[in-house]
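Posted in: Structural Biology > Protein-Ligand Complexes

Title: Requesting predicted complex, pyridoxal-5'-phosphate in pocket

I'd be grateful if someone could produce the 3D structure tokens for the following input. Sequence and ligand are given below.
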Amino acid sequence: MVAGVNGEQGMKPIEYYNKVFNLLEEHHRWFQQSIPLIASENISSPAVREAVASDFGNRYAEGFPKERVYAGCRYIDEVELLCMEMARELFKAEYADVRPVSGVNANIAVYTAFTQPNDVMMSLSIASGGHISFGKKQFSGTAGSVKNLEIEYFPFDYESMNIDVEATKAKIGERLKANQPLPRLVMFGGSVLPFPHPVKELTEFFHEHGATVCYDAAHVAGLIGGGQFQDPLQEGVDVMTISTHKTLFGPQGGAILSKANHQEALKKAVFPATVSNHHLHHVAGKAVAFAEMLEFGKDYARQVVENAQTIAKELYDRGFKVLGKKSGFTRSHVLIVDVSEIAYGSVIERLLEDSNIILNRNLLPYDIKFGRHYDTTGGIRIGVQECTRLGMKRDEMRQIAEFIERLVLKNEDKERIREEVVEFRKRFQKIHYAFETATEAYEYLKIRS
Ligand SMILES: *Cc1c(COP(=O)(O)O)cnc(C)c1O
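-- Reply #1 --
Done. Output follows.
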């Protein structure tokens, strides 16, 4: 018998064991009946799930294919080489490293390759769409905490929801004049990325001032691979980091793409510097997902952008304050809604979750100015990539906007909407944009007896 957290008598091991599986199955049932709108998530195909369940997940293969420090890698090497080859093709990159186990891990490897402690890095603030991995030490952000980088924020224009090019140049000019150190590394990209960043406009400028330029495409990698968003490497950046599970098809993981001249620095920065074993079952899963993306990515990415623009306009027409109106709300998978006149983002998040609509609260670029923080955000964030993978199109975007309107603006009964959501979801149980779809999207795959 194991003691419970409060010292009371806990469950027997077999009861814990069974309870874990019960919870997993319940989670699957819930997601089968919900509308998934979290912008950083996606669903992987049965093929990717099969690869992830393979024995690769029990093995070690430190190092580079064919240069391992472990035996037993005969097939692992082949799969990893195929994975790298497809990543290079998908992102038109000269070098691909598929070993980082997450997007944050990929960013840490980039910081390791291109900066020294106390260097300055330029990136977006979190409220303007930056990610915690770009963050300052005083906020426990990764770049500050792990590498002691000083962070200088990009000037951000709320109207266009984008980096302000002229103000950025002026900021660098001021640092020059004041004899302050210039950024050694520049991070474009972010976690709220409705519009392409001004990479073409600024990369040469930063290069002239001695910086390495990176683009964090964690969110938009699937759209870049599908040819529906800016193409940072072709626009001149030195290196690009990605997560493999947001707009890409999973499994959870990271990767780095770059020009050939950075290969040696990045290779060492990944192993031995920042990754030991690199979760080989996920490398196999990434390889399967890249194959799916090469085949189906164009159609998928086109539909994702169309769906995001449709739901943005539907919400706006129903009275929601969707940001970025001037530029058409979004050109990616994501949109931001200012709900500050209705309730905190966290309240809306819970209200929708109770009706099986799953999204998350998000800071607005101007929230800090109004004293709002992570729990009291003025915004919510919506991503349509997972719904798109389930085969949803224009009509379904309209229907989802209507559910949200009825819950948030018309205060209709939560329980009633939940029942309608469950009914609506019944028609979308298969993965689209995949070679095989025999197993239902959220089916719980039992391989115990
Ligand atoms: C999600 C995200 C990451 C981190 O990715 P993980 O795979 O969750 O570690 C990094 N950068 C940005 C901009 C992100 O949105």
